[in-house]
Each structure stands twice: as C-alpha cells, then as structure tokens.
Design brief:
Layout: H1 24-39, H2 47-57, H3 65-78, E1 81-85, H4 93-97, E2 101-105, H5 107-121, H6 132-147, H7 155-181, H8 184-190, H9 195-226, H10 229-244, H11 255-273, H12 282-310, H13 315-327, H14 331-342, H15 395-422, E3 425-426, H16 435-450, E4 455-457, E5 463-467, E6 475-480, E7 483-488, E8 491-495
Antiparallel strand pairs: 1-2, 3-8, 4-5, 5-8, 6-7
Helix pairs in contact: 1-2, 2-3, 6-7, 6-9, 7-10, 7-12, 9-12, 10-11
C-alpha cells in the first residue's frame, strides 16, 4: 500500500530560502557556525558569540554585528532558527538598549545542514558491494520465522531496525557502486594504462560479490517466501507496539501511519528479493548489472592490451621468420612453418554450385579441379567508363534446360502409366525399383500425406490416391537398386478420370 500524499507534504519549503538568497554566503556562514556548535552540544547561542565565530573564519569582508543581527532575524523568519529572550544581566548601555535574544537551530535546519555537509564530502558515486549485509538480513529474517512469536518487549523493534538498516544500506551502496562504474570518470579511467594494474582486483571484487549474492541472497528469497501474511502482520504489530511504547516529548506519527510505513518497508524488502508478477526482482537485476560490469571491465582491459601490443614493432621477429623460410628447401616444411606462424587464414564463402567429380570422402580438396567464379570489385573508387557490352544470350542454356525438363516429364509419364496399369498396389507388392522411381514414389506419398483428401492431381490430370493400412504395425520393405527402405504398407492407386488433354 502506497503512503497517502497530503497537501502538507506538497508545501513550499521556506527553510531552504537562505541557500538561494542574495547574501547566501553570509547566511551559510551563520548556519555553519550554529551547526558546528550544535554538534558540540551547545544549542542556545547569543548573537555576539555567532558574530565572533563567523568573524574568526575571516571569509566575509567587512562583516559587522548589525549585519549579523539582521541575518539572524531573516533566518528566524524563514524558520531556520528559533529564539528566546536572554535574561542575563546587561554589561553595557548598548546591550541594555538592544533586545537581547538567544538563537537555536530548528529541526529542519539541522537536517538541511547535515545534508549539505554530506554533499560536500561526496566525490563521485562511491558505494560498495559488501556481502556482510546479506548475512545480517539472513539472521534477522531467520529470527522472524522462528522466534517472532516469542519476541520480548523491544526485541521486535531492534530486529526491524537492524534488518531494514542493513537492507537500505546494502541497496544504496550497491546502486551507487554500479553507477560509478558507468560514470564518465570511470570511462576515462578505464582508458588509461594504469587501469590494467587495477583490473584484476576489480574483477575479483565483483566476482566475490556475485558469489556471495548467489550464496546468500537466494537463501533470503526462500525464507521470505516461507513467511506467511499472518506471521508478517503479527511481527509488524509487535514492532509497532515497541515503537509506541517509547516516551515521546513531541507529537509524532500516529500508529496508523507507522504501521503503513512498516508494511511499505516490508513490501519493498520482499519486492527487492522476490519480485512480483509484473517485474523481475531487484536481486536479479543487481546480479545482471554486476556481471555486465565484469564484462565491461574485461573488455576495457582487452582493448588496452591490444592497443599496447599494436604499438610494438615486430620488425626483428618478421626478419627472423623470413630467414627461417629462406632456409627451408621443402614446400611441405614451408607449409608447416606457415601453419605454426600464422594459423588458419580467414575463410571466404562464395555463392554457387560446387562441381565435384567424385563423392569419395577420402579425396583431398587439393586434388579437385578449381571452380572458377567471377568476383566483382568492392572498391569505392569509381572505375573509368568502359565500352558498352553486348546483350548476353542465354538461348543455349534455355534449350538445354528445356530438353532436361521434357526428359523428366516423359519419365514421369512412363512411371504413371506403369502404376496405372498395376491398379491398386501395396508397397509390399512393389517390384525392385530404380532410384529415380523410388524417389518419385516417396514424393507422391509425401504429397498425399500432406493433403486432407490423401490424394492429389498431377499436371497431366492423373489422380494419385493413398490409403493407410488398417494396422499401424503393418509395415513393408520398399526395394530399390540403391537399398531397401522399411515403411508402412500403404495402398496406392492411379486413375485418369480427371486427365486433361488440352
């Protein structure tokens, strides 16, 4: 269930106004001094203390106490500072005449300064891939499964804080580290020679995380799936009871809002490890991203190594290899040395029919006659205009093809006539056939089997009809001059009822 968004959650934030105001440097200096004093557990500060502290940094030229007082009032109006009357005794007429106040940072201002301090320390994405968080999450979920009904007061809340803090830290660190690998700074670093020294450690680090991920994270996934909705609700109610039992000095979130946050946190945890019906789990995506990072690191290292090798001179190696070739007297030995030195050359595939003189497998390709192929140049350079070529005539080839086709049709007519004279005939009753007749018969059987009527009509109008045997185990042997074929004992019939004489 998603948290409810209210208008108060969409309000303007005047507490951030001092970060973009005209005198931003003065406001930032005052807030930084107040925040550092807050970290030293000194909360209420007099204007003179703030002025002297900012003045000691010597970063604001011509800064006066009146300007400091004005800045404090502006910050008070924006909600960054709270004030109270200073009841101390005045030591001078000016102090007596001036309204004396003390100032303290508000909660919003503390969080803003804390955020700014964190942002100033950020260099890159940072992050890390640590598997120890998985062990912490496993331990907490194991306790939920086995001991959540026996948790004592305060124990459920400690378990939840430990579980969710480990999950949140692990997720944020992993996301930041993966993002840092794909940053511009990382791309530039991977293109330098110094990256080769870092490559092995980085790959080992990523591989160690993947192994830990596969070992621990999928165990967490299985444990989460074993926690029923009833057990989860009981556990979260105990967490809520422990939170509500804490003494509160200020008005905080209601029990309904806290329970909604806990349920949302649990849903985030389960979606990260288990996923849902629409999307893969974040666990699976993180594993893929880590493996992709490993591949990227390896590719970058390979490119650097190839670039390094490409700059080396191989002149002396090639001269020595040339002397070795010059000393060889046998062509076969030269072939062997070339094979050891250069390996197989890149093959080129040409389209066309390979005209073989024999089907023997023991015949070497070197003994076969060459097949000539005309290759057109792929050069982009424009060739000089050549003389016009005459139109090519293919009349001879067409005549040869026509004679071959007529011969095939005549052979088919003769075979059809023979089969028609036999009437209905089964495969078992077929005589020994020639190779071409056997291939034509199998072609007929294939066409009849594919047709719903178990028949087809030839170009001359003859109908070829096929009937299956009643018994599936009724098989026969079709004999031909190139071998025997065991198949079902089909019944074939050739009729001329639909013959067309044109």
């Amino acid at each position: 269930m998603e948290p409810i968004i209210t208008l108060s959650g969409l309000r303007a934030v005047p507490e951030l106004a001092y970060l973009t105001a005209t005198n931003v440097s003065r406001y930032r200096a005052v807030m930084k001094f107040c925040y550092r004093e807050y970290q030293r557990l000194k909360y209420w500060l007099r204007p003179e203390e703030i002025y002297e502290g900012v003045k000691a940094w010597d970063v604001l030229e011509g800064y006066t106490l009146e300007q400091c007082m004005s800045d404090l009032e502006s910050l008070k109006v924006w909600g960054n500072l709270a004030s109270r009357h200073d009841g101390g005794r005045a030591l001078s007429v000016e102090e007596y005449m001036r309204k004396k106040s003390q100032y303290m940072l508000t909660q919003y201002a503390i969080e803003i300064e804390r955020m700014l301090e964190t942002l100033e320390q950020i260099k890159g994405y940072g992050g890390s891939l640590e598997t120890t968080y998985f062990d912490t999450i496993t331990e907490c979920i194991h306790d939920i499964r086995l001991r959540s009904l026996e948790f004592e007061a305060g124990e459920a809340l400690r378990n939840w804080e430990k579980l969710y803090e480990a999950f949140k830290t692990m997720h944020e660190n992993a996301a930041d580290f993966i993002a840092s690998i794909h940053s511009i700074q990382a791309e530039e670093m991977m293109a330098t020679e110094g990256f080769l020294m870092l490559k092995d450690n980085l790959v080992n680090y990523l591989q160690h995380f993947v192994k830990g991920l596969q070992r621990s994270a999928y165990r967490i996934e299985g444990q989460l799936q074993q926690i029923s909705d009833g057990l989860k609700e009981t556990y979260l109610e105990k967490v809520l009871a422990d939170e509500m039992a804490k003494p509160r000095l200020e008005e905080g979130k209601s029990a309904e809002e806290l329970l909604l946050e806990y349920n949302q946190g649990w849903a985030n945890l389960k979606r990260w490890f288990v996923g849902d019906a629409l999307e893969l789990s974040e666990l699976t995506l993180l594993e893929r991203a880590t493996k992709d990072a490993i591949a990227k690191v390896v590719r970058s290292a390979v490119r650097l190594q190839e670039r390094r090798r490409g700059g080396l001179s191989r002149r002396h190696d090639l001269e020595e290899l040339g002397r070795r070739f010059a000393q060889i007297e046998s062509l076969d030995d030269a072939h062997k040395l070339a094979a050891y030195s250069f390996g197989l050359f890149a093959t080129r595939h040409f389209q066309g029919h390979d005209e073989k003189n024999t089907e023997r497998a023991d015949v070497s390709s070197w003994d076969e006659p060459a097949n000539l192929r005309n290759i057109r140049s792929r050069s982009r350079k424009r060739l000089s205009r050549s003389s016009a070529e005459p139109v090519r005539s293919y009349a001879d080839k067409r005549e040869v093809f026509r004679e071959q086709l007529l011969k095939q049709l005549e052979e088919e007519r003769e075979f059809i006539e023979v089969m028609r004279n036999r009437g209905k005939v089964r495969i078992a009753d077929m005589p020994v056939m020639r190779r071409k007749e056997r291939m034509r018969l199998l072609q007929w059987i294939g066409r009849c089997t594919a047709a719903a009527s178990r028949s087809f009509v030839t170009a001359d109008g003859y109908r070829i009809k096929l009937e299956f045997p009643d018994d599936d185990e009724d098989v026969a042997v079709l004999r031909s001059d190139d071998g025997d074929l065991t198949m079902r004992n089909y019944l074939l019939e050739v009729t001329e009822g639909e013959r067309s004489y044109g």
